[in-house]
Design brief:
Layout lengths: L4 E10 L5 H10 L6 E3 L8 E3 L19 H10 L3 H8 L7 E6 L5 H14 L14 H11 L5 E4 L5 H14 L5 E8 L3 H9 L23 E8 L5 E10 L12 H14 L8 E3 L6 H15 L4 E3 L2 H4 L6 H15 L4 E2 L17 E2 L5 E2 L3 E8 L3 E9 L2
Parallel strand pairs: 4-5, 4-6, 9-10, 9-14, 10-12
Antiparallel strand pairs: 1-7, 1-8, 2-3, 6-7, 8-15, 11-13, 14-15
Helix pairs in contact: 1-11, 2-5
Length: 394
């Protein structure tokens, strides 16, 4: 019998919360925008972003060579379950514990600083290390900080990065390659990223409105979420993980969601489930014209028009490579806090859905379900698709 991949601990940080409970409470109680205005765009336009405004825990001085905004966010998340990691280290061979981290920006915030400094002084800051912007910098920092001896892998597949990292961790655990994995994703706010999305006319003029007729793009955010996964029994199981890469277009999804559907059906098949077994779908839901059209088409075709679904990107913004992990963390928090009934994550600031889109059931406030199996999806540039199925074992 194949071993199961259980989620034993988790931590999260984003503009909606500095830990799991804070995140959960804010999602279900906030009725005002958490976004702040940013005026740093090259175009001079004002845009709203999901930037973290509370102080992060002090970064370990012993690891100062790894200090980037992205690593600082990762540290804030893993620090929340550091004791659980130490417990696992006391029982497993050090080489049998690994780190897999998803990221898009890595040290891009520090690159922004270096460029500004060079513009002002004619040279880059003394001692600036270009390796801070390498993708493997994130996983390497976590490995060294936690004193883990197994593999350290970074995954960078745009907005599916942490989802694909989680899928990889699931395979490693279930196939017996590793006994435990610290897995998740971290991405920080960076001007390079912000200006890139602005050049695509993909940024919302205000708070984004996914699936609305008035939708006009995304709000970027920053955050990190990490998990400790292993074969050790817990009440939360990662049941399925589906991946595909359809390569339809560099920055647009296949309009019918062909590759996305392959990832969704793969995750259901791996979990031994049918679409009717899913109680709630956390959608990618960016608020762009192309994504929302594709995704509503996909959900309607595979699941029908009744299953409750929503997106939290109009609460936390699009946290890029961390998005899959941040959103899965919230799904798990909902499952852990329920027993016989589970809260449905509402479509924040509910509005009328675009009547031109295929019908889906955008969740309203104060909805509950009895099913304890949730699906969370992420889609990325280049046709990268990821679907995760998580369930509560009662």
């Amino acid at each position: 019998m194949k071993a199961k991949c259980h989620i034993n601990a988790m931590g999260v940080v984003c503009c909606a919360g500095e830990n799991v409970d804070d995140f959960y409470n804010n999602v279900f109680s906030h009725n005002t925008s958490l976004f702040t205005e940013n005026n740093e765009l090259s175009s001079g336009r004002l845009k709203k972003v999901g930037k973290i405004k509370f102080p992060l825990p002090d970064f370990p001085h012993s690891q100062k060579q790894f200090l980037t905004r992205t690593n600082h966010l990762a540290f804030a998340a893993i620090k929340q379950f550091e004791n659980a990691v130490e417990d696992v280290k006391s029982r497993y061979e050090p080489s049998r514990i690994g780190v897999i981290a998803g990221t898009c920006t890595a040290g891009s915030s520090e690159v922004d600083y270096s460029r500004r400094y060079e513009d002002e002084h004619g040279h880059i800051p003394e001692g600036y290390d270009y390796s801070l912007d390498f993708m493997d910098n994130v996983s390497e920092f976590i490995k060294i900080y936690l004193d883990i001896k197994g593999p350290a892998i970074s995954v960078s597949t745009a907005c599916t990065s942490s989802g694909k990292a989680i899928a990889m961790a699931k395979r490693y655990v279930e196939q017996g390659f590793l006994d435990a994995v610290i897995v998740g994703g971290s991405d920080s706010f960076a001007l390079t990223t912000l200006n890139g999305f602005d050049s695509l006319s993909a940024l919302s003029a205000s708070d984004c409105q996914p699936f609305s007729a008035d939708r006009d793009g995304i709000n970027l955010g920053e955050g990190a979420a990490f998990f400790l996964v292993s074969r050790e029994q817990s009440n939360i199981t990662l049941l399925g993980a589906g991946e595909s890469s359809d390569g339809y277009h560099m920055s647009s999804p296949h309009p019918e969601g062909i590759g996305a559907e392959e990832a969704v059906r793969q995750s259901l098949s791996q979990a031994g489930l049918e679409p009717k077994d899913i109680a709630y779908i956390n959608m990618h839901g960016t608020g762009t014209e192309a994504n929302d059209s594709m995704e509503s088409t996909l959900v309607n075709r595979v699941f029908g028009a009744d299953i409750p679904c929503s997106t939290i990107k109009n609460i936390v913004g699009h946290t890029l490579g961390a998005a899959s992990a941040v959103e899965l963390c919230l799904c798990i928090a909902v499952l852990k806090k329920g027993k016989d009934q589970f809260r449905i994550i509402p479509q924040y600031r509910h509005y009328d859905m675009d009547p031109k889109l295929p019908k889906i059931n955008l969740a309203a406030q104060n909805q509950y379900c009895t099913g304890s199996i949730f699906l969370s999806t992420s889609y990325a540039f280049g046709g990268s698709n990821c679907s995760l199925v998580v369930g509560l074992e009662k």
